[in-house]
Amino acid sequence: MPSNPATPQQSFLRFKNWFIEKALPLWVKQSYDHTRGGFYEALNFNGAPATGLARRVRVQSRQIYTLTEAGLRGWHKDAEALAAKGFDFFLNAACPDEGVRGCAHLLSEDGEIIDDRRDLYDQAFLLLACASRWKAAEDDRALTLADNVARFLDRELASSYGGWAEDDRGTLPRRQNPHMHLFEAFTALYEATGQKQWLDYAAKALELMRSVFFDPGRGVLREFFDGEMKFLTDRSAVEPGHMFEWVWLLRNYQRHSRADLAAYRRTLFSRAVELGEDPDFYGFIGNEISIRARPGRADKRLWPQTEYIKACLAEAEDGNTDARRRAAQLINDLFETYLETPTPGLWIDEYDITGAAIAPHVPASILYHIFEAVAETDDSINAGDAS
Q: Which domain holds residue 65?
């Protein structure tokens, strides 16, 4: 394989092979605490676990989902078993009373709950993990937990102004981000189970995006809102990575519904490119961008780049060959930057506005983003659309 692949298919294969041969074996071997249980929050740049860090429950869910899905694709012989082990720990440590009030927020390294708030973002990834565990093993505990969480959301977090509260403590501002991941999880649960209730929940989240989060005048996604879901004008920065994420999620949702979402996808994609790309740094995407500032001039984490790849491949399904080529170029550039680490299979999480690497370690939470981007390239290869 050439160092700078000549075709999109070569770039996609390079990305897939790196994940299967370098990243996945390393994370299967090093990311789980077999003594105390649960997944580590991060690895150091030598591949050893980063210790002394509290463990976010959402990271446990993300790792369960990622390893389950990688196992289903046949990418690692031990991924499924590790995901199952992680799910056992997750249920026992983070979901008291079978999750009748969902999952807690934060665990100690010893697996004790140290923050018992019920955070909406955490519940979204719990549901995503449940979808994957049902798909892989038809684990009844996954459906019981998902049903309990759905009832909890409606009972305690549902808002008369739309959507669900940020947490069970009335935290403000309210955000679009947890609702986006609920949309992802509800759609995944429908895919896994065929139960219409989950598609109905996804439709509720979609309606909130169309009526509240999406700003048709500027063609952007708004992020922060007050308790009545009114946009906070003093928090006007946008996150192009989330706009790309919605492009991919809307395409996926369309597979299961009759909704025509093409106009939203086109607008979000084009505006995210326009606002987010930094022409001075590979065209990578900035984290938060003012719609009045120079495009792309911001710190840049890895995850917005993986969401850009996914959105490009979603657009390529509609025949956008330029988007396919852009996905390939992004992958090539990742190998020159974020994925260029002394220990193969790790990554640099963030560059600052000057192009300097500023990540202190390798956060486990990003494996989920990378996996989904690699899975999209794999699907494109399998569909024969990577020319």
A: 31-192
